[in-house]
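Student: Hello, beginner here. Can you help me understand the protein record under this note? Any guidance would be welcome.
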Amino acid sequence: MSMAHFPALIASLNGLSALLLLFGYGFIKNKKLIAHKTCMGLAFLSSVVFLGCYLYYHAHVGVNHFTGQGWIRPLYFFILITHTILAVIVPILAVWTLARALRGEFEKHRRIARITFPIWLYVSVTGVVVYWMLYVLYIPAVSV
């Protein structure tokens, strides 16, 4: 696999995480516990694979700079900054939430999941948006 394929792979893993989170949320609302556990476990796994691919890619390629101008530029940086700040805490929250569920501490799991879910979903969705803005809407300043 060439480095040029990594941004799309990374965005796809983010998108997959978002879909699995949404399905998992829907399943728990409908009291389908096994489906909920499956989706949330797969969301966690896809996020772990995403993180590995992301770190590998950026260790080898570095940073691509956003080339858009005008009103889109501050919008991009707002999305990127909020995405990045929240992305730092998602692994901590996700592990904490998962650990509560695995220990059978479902009330504690529910309380932390109410915080984890929207943050994790936001990070997953904005990861796809950042990819689209950086690699589709505008061509990167540094080619991969």
Notes: The mean pLDDT is 94.
